[in-house]
Design a protein that fits this description.
Layout (H helix, E strand, L loop, with lengths): L8 H6 L4 H7 L14 E6 L5 E7 L7 E7 L2 E6 L6 E4 L2
Antiparallel strand pairs: 1-2, 3-4, 4-5
Length: 91
């Protein structure tokens, strides 16, 4: 399981703001809108639902991971924004 970008406290607060404020926020130029954090976060669970891996990598130059696959001790990751696949060794 991946977390493409951590929650942004400002965006979270806006979700419960009055409708007039939420509509006003949609008019903010894209350049001023909050951007996704450039992190990699991957969770892995065994068949019983117990967490076995929690990978949290800061700005690695690769971000917005939405697909993940483990094979032979390596985690292979795909992104919505990157033109390549990233690999992380579990050992």
């Amino acid at each position: 399981m991946t977390i493409a970008s951590p929650k942004d406290p400002l965006v979270e607060r806006l979700q419960t703001a009055p409708l007039a404020i939420r509509k006003l926020v949609t008019k903010i130029p894209e350049a001023l809108q909050p951007k996704p954090k450039r992190t990699i976060r991957v969770h892995a669970y065994d068949d019983a639902g117990t967490p076995v891996h929690d990978i949290d990598l800061p700005d690695t130059g690769y971000h917005m991971v939405t697909g993940v696959r483990e094979h032979a001790g390596r985690v292979w990751m795909g992104s919505l924004h990157e033109p390549a696949v990233a690999v992380h060794d579990l050992t």
